[in-house]
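Duplicate of #3305? Posting structure anyway:
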């Protein structure tokens, strides 16, 4: 009987370690995307989902980076061109474009238009790099991957607190 109890405790211990490891992996996983020529990633828990670019209705008297509003499954979302918001060229139309919907826990009804998705990334496989001196407050750390490509981390909570992000009127 003591042997069964020991085996059972061992199995429970292994199961608990697996659960902890998978939840830590989910927390450390980042969603990679490209905006112009820059590679970015964002924490998965800050994103509700990624969708193809929906039809957008332009809103007059707004900044050029505010692309308009879109209906995503019955919910109205503000669409922000992330490249133009940063002062770059607007994201051109194309099949790879996507919209990253910001988690409702951060800001309800906001989507970032990005050039293309690059899949899940594990930041533990990256090396820390020097963050640009003129980086905005919503740009987190900078990294390089094994091939030397620079990656920037998007701090969505900081972005949605940015006054300019919240005031879309021109």
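Output from current build:
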């Amino acid at each position: 009987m003591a042997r069964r109890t020991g085996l059972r405790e061992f199995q429970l211990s292994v199961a608990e370690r697996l659960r902890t490891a998978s939840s830590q992996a989910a927390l450390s996983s980042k969603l990679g995307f490209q905006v112009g020529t820059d590679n970015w990633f964002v924490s998965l828990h800050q994103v509700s989902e990624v969708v193809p670019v929906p039809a957008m209705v332009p809103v007059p008297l707004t900044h050029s980076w505010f692309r308009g509003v879109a209906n995503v499954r019955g919910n109205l979302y503000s669409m922000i061109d992330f490249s133009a918001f940063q002062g770059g060229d607007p994201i051109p139309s194309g099949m790879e474009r996507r919209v990253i919907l910001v988690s409702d826990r951060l800001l309800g009804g906001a989507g970032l238009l990005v050039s293309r998705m690059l899949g899940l990334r594990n930041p533990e496989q990256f090396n820390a790099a020097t963050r640009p001196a003129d980086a905005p407050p919503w740009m987190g750390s900078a990294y390089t991957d094994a091939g030397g490509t620079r990656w920037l981390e998007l701090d969505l909570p900081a972005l949605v607190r940015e006054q300019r992000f919240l005031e879309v009127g021109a």
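Confirmed duplicate; merging threads. The helical segments are 2-28, 82-85, 156-161, 163-166. The first helix runs from residue 2 to 28.
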